[in-house]
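User: structure tokens for this one?
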Amino acid sequence: MSDEKTATLAKDAVASAVRYKFSEIKDASEALFGHAPAVVDGAFFGKDKEASYTVKEAQDLVEAFLNKPIGTAKKEGE
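Assistant:
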């Protein structure tokens, strides 16, 4: 593997490991995911909003939320 490719892979691995506060992810939601902050609110419903998340973790939550069939959402307290 070339040094350039190795450096790129290492850089990508470090970038994916950076953790951000929920509020930072929500504020950057349109730039990160192309969706309004309200979508991030829905995706993080029931999750710990004091915890930190990687962009990949947040993206996975947003995608799962957007692809969830209607009528399967948990009600608060369940």
